[in-house]
Amino acid sequence: MRPGLVTCEAETPIADAAALLVEHGVHALVVAGPDGAPAGVLSDTDLLAGEWVADDEERLAAMRRLTAGELMYPEVETVHADADASEAAERLTGRRLGRLVVVDGGEPVGVVSVSDLVRALARSPAARRVVADVMSRGFVACRPDARASDLARAMTERRSRSVVVLTPDGSAAGVVTGHDLLRLVGTGDDPPAEELMHEPFTIAPDAPLQEAADTILRYEVHRLVVADPDDPSAVPLGIVSTSDVVAEMAAPGSVWRSGR
Hints:
Blueprint lengths: L1 E2 L3 E3 L4 H11 L3 E5 L5 E6 H9 L4 H8 L3 H4 L6 E3 L4 H10 L4 E6 L2 E7 H10 L7 H4 L6 E2 L5 H10 L4 E5 L5 E6 H4 L11 H4 L5 E2 L5 H11 L3 E4 L11 E4 H9 L10
Parallel strand pairs: 2-3, 5-6, 8-9, 11-12
Antiparallel strand pairs: 1-7, 3-4, 6-7, 9-10, 12-13
Helix pairs in contact: 2-8, 5-12, 6-11, 6-12
């Protein structure tokens, strides 16, 4: 886990919450209640959904007045500090969460996220499966001229944290993530995908999962484009994300299970 919590108050405007996410390089904030105890979680995807469903100036202005407390997920999922990593992985996978608040003696002491579990996998020599076993063969894609609002809506509707930007011939030109859109929250700007995308980091389908975890950590990304090593300019074969790797950790036959 990462010790400590990145928090905001329920009254924090969503633009200020977005700035905190960017400043600390995290994907969610713990929202503190009146007594200072965790009252909910506000993620980057919550901000994007709230910002981009507004399609006219009046509704957009109303959305900008929203606070963290109004937009947060009003439950805090916790895990005990002495729980197995596989238990945390199973909880994250089953509830489609990005992080759990770690408690010890009833008090919150830190956060464990999908990225933290991937980091543990990268250190383990026990990962035996390959990328093709766990990758997502379907993914959200767009053209380079698609607008940021289109990408945010696609991410929200399809429950995806990224969009692959494809060239006219179908090869991967870049990737836009929810985090890339955070700086636009509250601005009203709507640039094209080609101005927001970053380099697509690729991996072969027969690469070991440990190599995928190492690459994710080395480049500080949350997903890799799976490319055909014999034709890297072809349409991508799929995407492997931190969530895919954690799902493998939570699987019944995982070497991470207790007693294995």
